Known about the structure:
The chain is α+β, with helices and mostly antiparallel strands. It has 11 helices and 10 strands. The protein has helices at residues 16-26, 75-85, 102-105, 123-129, 135-151, 168-181, 193-203, 245-255, 279-290, 297-320, 331-352; strands at 6-8, 35-38, 46-51, 57-62, 95-99, 109-113, 212-214, 223-226, 230-234, 241-243. Strands 1-2-3-4-6-5 form a 6-stranded antiparallel β-sheet, covered by helices on one side.
Amino acid sequence: MTGPIEATDTPDGIEVGPVTAWLLSQRADLAGPFRWEKLPGGHSNFTYRVLDANGTAFVLRRPPLGELLPSAHDMAREFRIISALWPTPVPVPEPIAFCDDLSVTGARFYCMGAVDGKSLYEGADVEAQVAEDKRRALGFSFIDVLADLHALDPDEIGLGDLGRKDDYVGRQLKRWFASWNASQTEDSPALTDVAVLHDELVARLPEQGPARLVHGDYGLHNTLSHRDGYIAGVIDWEISTLGDPLADLAYALNTWVGPEDPPSPKTDIPTLEPGFPSRQELIDRYAEHTGSDLGRLPYYSAFNHWKTVCILQGVYARYLQGQKSSEGVDLRLLAQRRNHALFLARQTLNAAG
């Protein structure tokens, strides 16, 4: 479960006095003092729902504490992306203000509007938020929003310089294979298919079409589902860049697990709840919406399963090496999820022909 919302007078990473003063200087319609509620979920950044004295709600987002990699947790990048998307058909929270003055609270942060919707991480979240007769419409809204994102020309919305436009999957293969090789554990030598699949994916790499803005982690966990069965907002643009929209689509479809799929070690998956459209229905909907040729989609699906293996291995290795506290973490389940992703990568690439 994602856990309850926690109200606090001492929010982590927030100097309440200076931040309050800064916010009041940015918005004349706000009134102090503020009430801080830490939002639950899997985000790496601190995210707070803030209520002013008049009951006006907004959201503040800042990086975690401690030393960070130069390119990680880039608040300016996130704020730039939602600002560019705000006038488009892609639903995002309203951009309110960005602070690059480190003296305010020790890090850059930004504020955005509160959206009436919930992220769906587990089946229980679906049951609590979206009635069964609304889930089919929610699924189609989910894929329509992604199609709308991929229809945008990055140059036309001011994001043409957000990243490199060429060889997105090729660069991802190189990056994540290096991560795999740097994150070896005692059981990883048995997973020889990781290297074999890497070579096969490189050899069969499709030619990329026009670059589009890709979210990079698009799923029900990073969207805000409204009770009436539609996506009210897309959040967590931290790893968004320019790239191949079919890779972005395949990642989203991989998260859309159905009862026809091989049983996953993670059982409480939102889309296993009754009422959602099938993955194939989403594929057909995207193709109709965009006119895209999806003949190579199985390749992109295999690539994303393989990439998931490398990501989970990196997390698993950091736990085993003591770089992250493993208290409360089921390492056996994490390894099972990694192995399951490897099975799916091989199965999907074999099916691609």
